[in-house]
Amino acid sequence: MKIAIIGAGICGLYLAWKLAEKGEEVTVFEKREKIGKEACSGLFSERILEFIPESQKLIQNQIDSVLIHFPKKTIKIRFPKRFFVMSHFELDNLVANLSQKAGAEIILGYNVPRNVLGMFQERFEKIIGCDGSNSVVRENLGLPTPDYRLAIQGFIPKSDNSNFVETWPTKSGFIWKIPRGKEIAEGSTFISHSRFAREVEYGIIDKPKEAKLLLEEFLRKNNLSLEKINSAFVPQGLIIPENPRITLCGDAAGLTKPWSGGGVIWGLMAAGLLLKNFPDFLKYKKTVENFFSTKILFSKMATRLVYFLGFKTPWLLPKEFKIEGDFLI
User: Fold this and answer.
1) CATH annotation of 2-326
2) Mind giving me the DSSP string for 128-166?
3) Which listed site, 73, 77, 208, 250, has its alpha carbon 20 to 30 Å from 118?
4) What is the structure's pLDDT at 13?
5) Do strands 320-322 and 73-85 pair parallel, antiparallel, or not at all (unpaired)?
6) Judging by beta carbons within 10 Å of its beta carbon (0-12, 13-18, 19+), is residue 110 exposed, middle or buried?
C-alpha cells in the first residue's frame, strides 16, 4: 500500500519506520531542509524506551520529581516512572535513520501545497497528517483549529544534573527549569552525546499574548539571561477526521497534555493505536477518542483544582504526593 506521511516530526517518522517494517511503501514529505525539532524541552517518561529502545543512548539526565512553586507554598510531585532529558533534535534524527533503514523514503524541502489532498489522493492510498500544530492537512480537511499556547525556551551554559524539574505556575500555564545534565564519562549507564549537554533550560508555556512578558519579568527578577531562544505554538484539542483515507496524528491532531503541552509520548501512543488499527482510519479515530478523551478531561480538571488550591488555599495541598507523570508533564 502506498502511504504519504506529511511531516517528519517524531510521530511521522515513527509511523514511517513501523509501517515500512510491515512492508508498506512509505514516503515522508517534510517542508524543512533538515530533520529535527529544536523548540522542545525533550523531557520524556521512560516509556520512550518502549517505543524507541535505541533512544537509550541519547539520555542526558534523569528526573524523578517536579517542584511546583506557588507564591505561598512549594509542593513536590514524585513520578512512579522516571523522566529522561534528551535532545528532541537528536531523537528525530535517530528515528529518521531507523525509518530509512526500514525502507521509507524521506523527501526534505517539500513545501506541501494547499491543495495537497486532491493531488496526493491520486498518488497514495492513505495519507497521514503529522505536520504539526499548524497542520496543512487539517486545514485542507476543513477541520476546526485547536486552541494554542505559546512555548518559549532558552538556555544557560551551566552544568546541572539535578534529578528534579522546577516550575512556577502562571494563570494559564507555567515557567519551568530543566537541568539538562552534564557530560558523563564513557562506561556510565547514561551517556550523553548531545549538543545541549552542560546547559540549564528555562522556559514558559502560556497564552500567546502573555508568555513573552511573563518570562521576561521572571528572568529580570532572578537575574537570568538566556541564550539560543526558541519558540513554538502548542495546540490543545483532539481533532481526528472521519475519513477512511486521510487521518491526523500527534500535534496535527491537537494531541498534547493539557497542563504541560507535552505531546511526544501521547503522540507515540496515538501512533501505536493507528498502527494497531491500520489501515482502518475510522476505527483508529474511535479508538483514539475513547482512549484519550477521559484522560484529557481528567488532566484539565486536576490542573484546575491544583491551581485553585495552590493560589487560593495552599494549606489544603499536601507537601508531597505521587502522580502518573505521563498525564501531567
Assistant:
1) 3.50.50.60
2) EE---TT-HHHHHTTPPPPEEEEEEEEEE---B--SEEE
3) 250
4) 99
5) parallel
6) middle
